[in-house]
């Protein structure tokens, strides 16, 4: 494979190809990503599954139970950042996103495998203290499901495999090289 860090347009396309692969392949390093938000209690970061990527619309999507702290954080402040890391290629991607909540969408719900739907129906609600972990039950409920659609506003891409390291910043498809 040629080096995507030789040309900004190639790098832009490479990152979106990697996002597509993260959505499609469950074992890809870009499948599970870190979503950072700022809520009423301050900054919070958590691992979530990347569920959709659309390069033309410049959006990415993750899913959640509607009752989680991450949803409250997005309601408080829709700005977020998604961090992706590939250890093997030493590639880091940060996506600055504006998050929109899309609750109980039937088309999205229909695409979720039955076993994964269990994540959107825990009782008690996520974050609720319990005496024992085995008391938590899971019954899929579409009304507890929400998609978090992230409009990508900026992209920061770093290669630690290069010497010296290489870094580019994008505001849409237009990018510029910056010192790492």
UniProtKB/TrEMBL annotation:
One Gene Ontology MF term: FMN binding
Q: Where is the Pyridoxamine 5'-phosphate oxidase Alr4036 family FMN-binding domain?
A: 16-101
Xref: InterPro entries? Pyridox_Oxase_Alr4036_FMN-bd, Split_barrel_FMN-bd
Q: What is this protein called?
A: PPOX class probable FMN-dependent enzyme, family
* Species in which this protein is naturally found: Jannaschia donghaensis
